[in-house]
Amino acid sequence: MRSRPDADKPTVTEMKFSDSFLDEVRARLPVSQVVSRRVQLKRAGREWKGLSPFNKEKTPSFTVNDQKGFYHCFSSGRHGDIFRFVMETEGLSFPEAVERLAGEAGVPMPEPDPQYERTVKERLGLMDALEAAAAFFERALQSGAGREALAYAEGRGLSRETFNEFRIGCAPGMRDTLKNALLQKGFTEAQLLDAGLIVKPDNGRPSYDRFRDRLTIPILDMKSRVIAFGARALSADAQPKYLNSPETQLFDKGSMVFNFARARQSAFDKGELIVVEGYMDVIALDQAGFKNVVATLGTAFTARQMELLWQLAPEPVICFDGDRAGEAAAARAVDRMLPVLREGHSFRFAFLPQGQDPDDLVRSAGPAAFSAYLKNAMPLIDMVWRREMAAGAIDTPERRAAFEARLETLLTQIENARVREHYRREIKNRLFELWRPQTPRARSGGKGRTSKPIRREALPPPTDYGFGTIVTLAMVNHPWLLDHFAEEIASVDLRDKKLAALLAAARRAIFDDPAMSREALIGALRAGPHGPLLDRLFWESPFTRLAFLRPEAPRDEVIDQFTDVIYRWRALPTLTREIAESAESIAEMSEAEFERFAALQQEVASVGLQHETDDAPMRDAKQRLQDTLARLKNEPPSRGRRRENRR
Predict the structure, then answer these.
(1) Comparing C-alpha atoms, which of 157, 130, 129, 153 is closest to residue 141?
(2) In sequence order, what are the beta bridge partners of 71?
(3) CB atoms within 10 A of CB 103
(4) Does CATH number 3.30.300.130 belong to domain 255-388?
(5) What is the mean pLDDT of residues 275-286?
(6) pLDDT tens sequence across 86-99
(7) Which of 64, 89, 178 is nearest to 132 (CA)?
(8) What is each CA distance from 195 to 462, 486, 596, in whole angstroms?
(9) What is the mean pLDDT of residues 453-471?
(10) Fewer CB atoms near the end CB (10 Å): N or C, the chain?
(11) SS3 for 226?
(12) How confident is the model at residue 596 (pLDDT cuts 50, 70, 90)?
């Protein structure tokens, strides 16, 4: 029989740690000592520098300061002490990180209080019973009683190595086989009841085994200890088809994910996590080489489960079957995910072919086919948009208004203010593209026209500094842009002298070496007086999250988006002046004139009203526009009044 891991150690999950205890651990373990296990550090004055463990980079942006007791990653914005570093690089919880580092530092863990100690002993007794049950089920699988279960597992394509890895077993069909075996080992009936292994009828009849005639799969906690079982019926007419242990002192379905302990290291190393619906899918995918996969045990997503998933990867991919049930499950998941979103943490959705689950797809088409679906997983914002678009027609003003109202209601569910604001901007831009007439417009430079609207990203109102930041980041991350937009970039006149100097320095460097790479340009700028400002833009600017500003963005997408930025910035004064002049005669407008006014109003709203200018007539036009729009908002003229005035 296998021994239970850490059988003699009480768990620290519920323990609290004093500040003095944590400070003692920090004092004995320099940050550089802990970090150097994963990052190659070089001394740089009073600090240490190295390549970020969170992002792929060629120029070091990761610093460690032992005197101040923290690390900081400029490329990702992550910051913390030794406990945070272990949590972020190994996927440990805070108590687990404390226990690990206290052991390294030689600092004894604090003694738990007597009540806690009694609870720990009780829990350990239940774990012993569950471990004994797992060993019993494993032996049964290899006996005559397990013949049918073994045939089923092999029919699913599972190997003997997989049986051993996941400790797959078999619960015999007799009423009390497991119960009698464990009672003979010294466990009490009360322990077996508390562990969820047996059931006690209300009518006073003898207790009996919960799992009978089923394939059994142990469910492990974060320390790989058996805390429950999942069991698949072997008889075609048995109900339910899948049966989990009941909730116990050890097992809370809403706070667990299946295969967490095994998937932890692989998921963290790859920065990717796959989430499926059932444990048989997990086992099949693991055998196919996907070690970074977990399952939610058939429960709706809970906040605790989402936090566990985020311990392993910032954007787990949730796999659903490509049928109505899968779509419905994804739709329900959206409502649970929105409230807990935070900066850098979200989810993506992968829908498999109709009628196939991950196990079916891997067996029929191979691991590469499954990987392709993961690669094309849609972001959560796309899932929100897709769900609401499918909720009903938007072919009348009333239906369009209802569509917008549903989206606005969803946005209020996002508790994180910063994430909520970015969702609001993205939704606003999508609505603008959806409602505006799809007419061709001239592209920058007069080099052709297009009838396909550019997909605008969610840009804040383009203030002078914001516009300059976008242009600077675009040129630094894509130096080749200067060859396409030399005239436009040269004409950018910024009020902020430091930002203007950084932009000019980048332009000069690229002119001096037209073949200069992004890495070489960043290195040259950091070596000069503009380095701190560049690092601050990379670290603090919200624009770094725009897809076309990322180094890996496709060239065509970068050109399209940058063209749109230039167009919107140049067009704003003209658009604002035109709508301000039109607003003064709104009561006399014809139907066609009013529709044009509405389109102009939408265009200005999309571009923004915070364009800074020294042009006095422009400022006057802006003020007239704002006054008119405020008046119209309070007293909108009816369509009937406009017809009356035209007569």
Answers:
(1) 153
(2) 64, 80
(3) 12
(4) no
(5) 92
(6) 988 887 888 889 99
(7) 178
(8) 61, 71, 71
(9) 59
(10) C
(11) strand
(12) low
| Mean pLDDT, rounded, for 577-605 | 54
Q: What does the buried/exposed string (b/e) look like for 610-625 if buried means 16 or more CB atoms within 10 Å of the residue's CB?
A: ebeeeeeebeebbebb
Nearest Cα to Cα of residue 543 among 559, 528, 562, 527 = 562
Which residues 6+ apart lie within 8 Å of 638 measured at CB? none
CATH topology for 114-251 is: DNA primase DNAg catalytic core, N-terminal domain (3.90.980)
pLDDT category of residue 356 using cuts at 50, 70 and 90: confident
Residue 106 to residue 350: CA distance in whole angstroms:
46
Dihedrals φ, ψ of 350, to 5°? -120, 125
Residue 576 clears pLDDT 80, i.e. is over it: no
Q: Can you name the residues that pair with 449 across neighbouring β-strands?
A: 442
| Global pTM value | 0.58
Q: 19-105 is classed in which CATH architecture?
A: Alpha-Beta Complex (3.90)
Closest C-alpha to 46, from 32, 65, 28, 60: 65
The residue written with tokens 């404390």 in the block is 98
- Sign of torsion, CA 462 464 469 472? positive
CATH number of 464-622: 1.10.860
Could you tell me if 567 and 577 are in contact, meaning their C-beta atoms sit under 8 angstroms apart?
no
Q: Span 21-49, mean pLDDT?
A: 89
The identity of residue 325, as a single letter, is A
Q: Take residue 515 and report the two structure tokens written for it.
A: 């073949």
DSSP 8-state secondary structure symbol assigned to residue 468 = H
pLDDT of 585 over the 90 cut: no
Residue position matching structure tokens 């998921």:
267
Task: Considering only residues 101 and 463, tell me which one the structure prediction assigns the higher pLDDT.
Answer: 101
Q: CA 116, CA 16: separation in Å to the nearest integer? A: 11
Sign of CA pseudo-dihedral 605, 606, 610, 615: negative
Could you tell me where the DSSP H helices lie in 80-113?
Answer: 82-90, 94-105
Structure tokens at 618: 């422009």
Count of positions (residues) in the chain: 647
Q: How confident is the model at residue 581 (pLDDT cuts 50, 70, 90)?
A: low
pLDDT at residue 628 is higher than 60: no
The partner residues of 226 in beta bridges, in order of sequence, read 220
- Residue 350 is given by DSSP the state E
The structural domains of the chain, with segments of one domain joined by +, span 19-105, 114-251, 255-388, 464-622
Q: Please check whether residue 22 is in contact with residue 82, taking contact to mean a CB–CB distance below 8 angstroms.
A: no
Which pLDDT score is estimated for 127?
93
- Write out pLDDT tens, residues 534-574: 888 887 776 777 788 888 888 888 888 887 777 666 655 55
What 3-state class would DSSP assign to 45? coil
| HSE-up of residue 307 (Cα within 13 Å, Cβ side) | 12
DSSP helix/strand/coil, 170: strand
Residue 432: count of CB within 10 angstroms of its CB: 16
Mean pLDDT computed over 137-158: 90
Task: Please tell me the distance from the alpha carbon of residue 622 to that of residue 629, in angstroms, as a whole number.
Answer: 11
Average pLDDT, the chain: 80
d(CA 55, CA 70): 18
| Nearest in space to 130 (alpha carbons), one of 215, 222, 198, 176 | 198
Type of residue at 544: T
Question: Quick one: DSSP state of residue 299?
Answer: P
Question: Does the fold of domain 464-622 match that of domain 19-105?
Answer: no
pLDDT for 289-300, tens place per residue? 999 999 988 667
Bigger pLDDT: 491 or 363? Answer: 363
- Percentage of the chain modeled with pLDDT above 90: 34
CB environment 169-188: b (16+ within 10 A), e (fewer): bbbbeeeebbbebbeeeebe
